[in-house]
Amino acid sequence: MYFMFGFLFLVFIILLITCSEATVLLCYFHLCAEDYRWWWRAFFTSSFTAVYLFIYAVHYFFSKLQITGFASSIFYFGYTMVIVLIFFLFTGTIGFFSCFWFITKIYSVVKVD
Prior knowledge:
By secondary structure, the protein is mainly alpha-helical. It is built from four helices and no strands. It has a domain at 44-107. The chain is 84% helix and 0% strand.
């Protein structure tokens, strides 16, 4: 029971690193192609993991759960949508701020003479 929280914290750290690395890599590719509109693209790049989470929740609902009532289904999908929205905002924020940090670092090194 006590190892569960350490394992969850480790998975949380891996999620942060993965979201930030993927966003910075794709943002770098866009900057190399001279596309400087990176703000929303950085947010949506890492936040689309929430779409995968929602697809998995729908799959889990139809394959594993035995919920038959309409009200129970509405509760399940309502709470799932709230969790997916929070996850969407959280991972998008992580992606945006990691990309913002990366861009400020690489542009602070550029010397204009």
